[in-house]
Every structure is written in C-alpha cells, then in structure tokens.
Design goal:
Rossmann fold, alpha/beta, about 25% strand, three-stranded antiparallel beta sheet, binds S-adenosylmethionine, nine-stranded mixed beta sheet, about 25% helix
Amino acid sequence: MTTEDASPQLTWTEEGEPRSGRFGDVYFSRDDGLAETRAVFLQGCGLPEAWAGRRSFTVAELGFGTGLNIAALLDLWRRTRPQEGRLHVFSIEGFPLSAQEAGRALANWPEVGEAASALIQAWPAPTPGFHRIDLPEHHAVLDLAVGDAAWALEAWWGQADAWFLDGFSPALNPGMWSPQVLDLIQARSAPGARVATFTVAGAVRRGLAERGFVVDKRPGHGRKRERLEARLPGRATPQIPARGSRSSARAWRGPRPRGRWRRQASSRW
Ligand SMILES: C[S@@+](CC[C@H](N)C(=O)[O-])C[C@H]1O[C@@H](n2cnc3c(N)ncnc32)[C@H](O)[C@@H]1O
C-alpha cells in the first residue's frame, strides 16, 4: 500500500468535524463524539470496573482514526487505574490521518486534552507496520498497526480484554466486519473479553454469537437507538501480585507483533 493509496481523503464538515471521503462517513457522532465514545466504548466494555484488580489490561481497537477513543480511554485509565496497573492498547488504522489533522479534530475536546496531546506528540509516520508509542505519563503503551485490519490482527499475538469495534458502518466498510476479522477477534480474545460497538447490524450480532460471544443490544447514545455489547464466557484472572513477588514483569508491556515495528518515543520504564 503506498501512502497515496492509504489516504483517508479527509474533508471537514461545516461544524469542523472530519469526514472520510474514502468511506463517505464521519469519524464520530455529530452530537458529541466524546460522550458517544464514553457511552459506546468505555461503558460498553464495562470500564473502569473491568480493570479493577488487574496489573495489566489490554484494549484492542479496530479503527484508530483521530485517536479520540484512545484519548478518552487513556484519560479514564489515568484517573481510575489500579495501583501499579499498566495499560496496553493495540489499535489498527489502514488510512492514517496526519498529526495535524488529528490535532484539529481532537481540539474539540479539551476535557481529554492531556491524553490527546500525548498522542499527537508521538503520532507515528503513516508507514505500514507496527509502531510502538510509549505513554509513561499515562502508564500505558500503544501499539498502532498501520495497515489492513485482517493483516494486523493476524500479525498480533496479544489477547484483548476489551475490544472497541469502530470501523465505519458495515454497509460502507465491510472489510472491518468480515468473517475473517471476526474469527481473528475471537482468536485474540482473553477469557471473559468484552466487545463494544455502535452497530447492531444483524451480521455483526450473528457473527459474534456464532463465535461464542454472548451478545446484548443496549440503549444507544444520542440519536442512535441501540448499541452492542458482547462478552466471551470465562473470567479474567486478577493479577495484582503480592508485594515482592516475582510476577511476570513483561506481561503488561504487551506482546510484540511478528511484523516490523518501530518505537516512537523513548520509554522511561
Ligand atoms: C469510525 S472511524 C474510527 C474512529 C476512531 N476510533 C476515532 O476515535 O476517531 C473508522 C476507521 O477505520 C479505518 N478503516 C476502515 N477500514 C479499514 C481496514 N480494512 N483496515 C484498517 N483500518 C480501516 C478508517 O480509516 C477509519 O479511520
């Protein structure tokens, strides 16, 4: 994929919101993107309760876009994380925005401004492959895969505790909801993994249910009537170690993808 092939073909609405010309859709709700992110993805994955008692927690996202979901996640994590907890975020983007475009989009939400600035400062080049971004102020690390979702999920060998499925709508963006992608979501899920998404499309509900997820429609945010929550059976194991115990220090750093990867910011850990 060349850089030109991967352009999101961004335009801006009169309200100053980014829109993908490539997919013909907006990146987030016109009403209030941040409130929607919190309702659909954070609350949809049972956060922050789901990470209580966890030494490490992994969130995977399909569709990094402007970084708004991840800025809201980092903001919540910093305020509510378990002591000594480390967050590993894995996100995938096939058609990256530039740092300048993302900065313009995220400027709408000063409430998550600190997390947004941390992302913008370390914004990776749009080079295909895996980019590691250390976010020490947020006790987190972000692995951003630049490339197609199915390729990136295949190359990642992590296990997500929570999934933000945020492709454009399945009708406009079938590649983000394909049977292959759903198979990989199942394969890369930890026991008890939660899934949240804005779409209640029948194919997505059935696709998740056929792969062992218990799927629930929930009241939607704003003008959307419904949203989806799903969960795999099983329970995540609490990981807060006893003081001085030799717990897996590497676990929270997150797995390394098999492909090429680049470190964006120097780690202080
Ligand atoms: C609704 S937007 C994501 C919004 C984002 N979560 C945010 O917080 O701004 C969907 C994203 O999925 C990306 N995308 C669409 N198809 C893809 C594919 N096959 N592989 C990887 N990314 C894809 C789009 O470029 C777009 O950035």
